[in-house]
Amino acid sequence: MNDKTAWERQCLIREKTRPTVNDYIPLIFDEFYELHGDRHYGDDAALMGGIARIDGIPVTVLAEVKGRDLNENKKTNFAMPHPEGYRKALRLAKQAEKFHRPVICFIDTPGAFCGIEAEERGQGEAIAKNIMEFMRLKTPVTSVVLGEAGSGGALALGVCDRLAMLENALYSVISPRGCASILWKDASREHEACEILKITAEDMVRLGVAEAIIEEPNGSAHYDVYKIAENIKEFLVKTLKENSSKNIDILLEERYSKFRKIGEFTE
Amino acid sequence: MALENLFKVVTTRFNGNSEKTDQKPVNSNNIPDNLLFKCPRCRNVVFEDEYKALNMVCPKCGYHGRISASERIELTVDKGSFIETNSNMLSKNPINFPDYDEKQQALRDKTGLSDAIITGEATIRGIPVVIGVMDSRYMMASMGSVVGEKVVRAFELATQKKKPIILFTASGGARMQEGILSLMQMAKTSGAAAKHSEAGQLYITVLTDPTTGGVTASFASLGDIIIAEPKALVGFAGRRVIEGTIKQRLPDDFQLAEFLLEKGFVDMIVERKKMRSVLSHVMRLHGYEKEVL
After folding, report:
1. Bridge partners of B44?
2. Model ipTM value
C-alpha cells in the first residue's frame, strides 16, 4: 500500500535519477529496433517508436522519452512531443495492425509541446487523429504510465485495452501548477492542487481509467530498476496473452465501452 | 475657500479618509453599459446595436463574435424544427472539486443552460440533421462529463437514424474541475465520431470563436468537412501558454481561422450569413435530401 501523498509522488517522479523508458527497454525486451520518422515532416525524439520482441512475441513499442540529463532532454524536448511525434506513433501503430503485432505504449510526458511550430503543424489534429485511430486499431494496445501522464499529450498514447500505472505515476488533465495558477492565481500552491485533482494510481483505478498498478520495489522505482522492469514485463506478458486470445471485434467493443462509460452525471 | 480648508481637502484626498470614499463615482454622462462593442481583433469600437444587427459580426474587420447556443440554433436551423435532446443532464462533482457545484448553479441561473452544450434534432432547409452547439458563456464551454456524454449521444443518434451531424464547437478545453474524467471525454467523443464515420455518415465541424485545448484535440478536428467562422481563434495551446514557453509575443493573426486555412487544417471559412446555405448544399452533395412528409 502506497501512503505517499500526490505531491510526494510528484516530487519523486520528477527526480532526475528516476529510471526512464531507455533504462527499461533493454531489460524488458529481448531485442529492439528503433524506427524513425512520420513520413510527412520529420522525426521527433520525444516520442520513440520501434519493433521489439517480448517473451518471444513480436510487438510494436511507442514511448515518450524523458532525458536523463540536460543534453538528453534537449534532444527529447523533455518528453513533450510535436505533431510529427504523434504522427510517427500512428504510422507505427498502423504498421503493427497490418502485421498483427500488439502495441505497447509507455507514457511519460508533462504534455504535448506548446509552441508556434506545434500549432502550425496541427498539434490538436495530430492528437485527435491518434485518439480516434487507436480507438479502432485492430490489434491489442497496452499502455503503461511510467512517471507523469499530462493531459492530451498522454492520451494520444493512452487509448488502450489495458492501462497500468507504476505505483507512483500520476495522470492528470492539467498540470497541478497550471491548475493552481487558474484556481488561486498562484502557481506556488501546486502541492494543494496535486491533492485536489485526484491524480494518483489508486484514483485512476477507482475512476475506471486504469486497470492495474505496478508495484515499485521499496516504494520507488529508483532503488531497483531490475526488479521494476521485471514487474512491468510480467504485467505486459500476462496482458498480451489475455488480449491476443480474444476475438479482435470483441476486444475493440470492450475498448470502446471502457471509455464510453466514463463520466458522472444525473438526468 | 479659506486657505487652510483647501489644505484639508488635499490631505483628506491623500489619506483616503474622506467621507465620500464609500460612494461609487457618479457617472455624469449616464452612459449605459453595453452601448459599445470593442472588437477583440481590430480593436475598433462600434455601437452594440449595429454589432447585434449584424448577428455579432464586426462591421470593420469581419470578426465573427461569440453568440449563445440558442441564438446560433435560431440562425442555423429551420424555424420551429429544433427538438432538444438530453436537456436535463447535469454534471456531478466527481472529484469534489472546491466550489464546482456553486459555480455551476450560479451559471445555470445566469444563462438558463444546464451545461456548455445544447444538442438536438432539426432540419436545415428541409434536410434532417443532428446538431450540437457549444456555448462559451458556460465555464468557457469546457468539456466535462455532460458535454462528453451529450456529444456521444448526438453521434449515436445520428448513426442510428442515418443522419448527418453538425457540431458548432467553442471551448476552452477539458474541464479541470472534473479531473481525469474530463480528459477521458476526449477519447469517448472521438470513439463515437469514429463509429458514425464507419456507418458512412457525414460529420461537419463548424469551428467558432474560441475552440481550443481538449476539444480541438478531439472531436473538433475529426469532421469530414471542417468549416471555420472568420477570425475565430482555434488552437491547441492557449496563446498565453505559448508566449510563456517561447518568451515572446505572438503575431495578432496567430491561431485565427485564416491561419489554420493557410496551414491546411480547415476546409473553408464561411460567413455566418451564408452558413445555412453552405451547410445545406454540402449535405445535399453527400446525398442527404429534404424530408418527405
Report:
1. none
2. 0.95
Pairing relation of β-strands A31-35 and A47-54? antiparallel
Q: Do B235 and A264 touch (CB under 8 A)?
A: no
* pTM of the predicted model as reported, rounded to 2 decimal places: 0.92
The DSSP element (H or E) to which B229 belongs, if any, is: none
Domains and CATH numbers, chain B: 34-63 (no CATH), 64-285 (3.90.226.10)
Residues of B in contact with A124 (CB under 8 A): 216-217, 220-221, 235-236
Cβ-Cβ contacts under 8 Å for A109 (sequence gap 6 or more): A46, A64, A66, A79, A80, A81, A148, A149, A150, A153, A154
Domain assignment of residue A188, yes or no: yes
DSSP summary character for residue A68: S
- Asked whether residue A252 is domain-assigned, the answer is yes
Q: Decide: B152 and B181 in contact? Cβ < 8 Å.
A: no
If 0-12 CB within 10 Å is exposed, 13-18 middle and 19+ buried, where does residue B90 land?
middle
- For B28-143, strand residue ranges (E) read 36-38, 45-47, 83-85, 90-91, 117-124, 127-134
**CATH number assigned to the domain comprising residue A239:** 3.90.226.10
**A positions 119-158 inside 8 Å of B (CB):** 119-125, 127-129, 131-132, 135-136, 151-152, 155, 158
- How far apart are the C-alpha atoms of A13 and A98, rounded to whole Å? 36
CA distance B240 to B259: 18
Host domain of residue A220: 6-258
CB-based contact A60:A25 (threshold 8 Å) = no
Q: Is A107 on the interface with B (CB under 8 A)?
A: no
Q: Are B272 and B281 in contact (CB under 8 A)?
A: no
Let me know if residue A176 belongs to a domain: yes
Give the position of cell 515518450. Answer: A64
By CA distance, what is B240's nearest residue in A? A114
CA distance B214 to B169: 11
For every one of its 293 residues, what pLDDT tens digit does chain B have, with 9 covering 90 and above? 555 555 555 544 555 444 444 555 555 566 667 789 999 999 999 999 999 999 999 999 999 999 999 999 999 999 999 999 999 999 999 999 999 999 999 999 999 999 999 999 999 999 999 999 999 999 999 999 999 999 999 999 999 999 999 999 999 999 999 999 999 999 999 999 999 999 999 999 999 999 999 999 999 999 999 999 999 999 999 888 888 878 888 888 899 999 999 999 999 999 999 999 999 999 999 999 987 76
Task: State how many domains chain A has.
Answer: 1
Comparing CB atoms, the residue among A112, A135, A267 nearest residue B191 is A135
Other C-beta atoms closer than 10 Å to the C-beta of B242 total 21
Tell me whether residue A23 is in a domain: yes
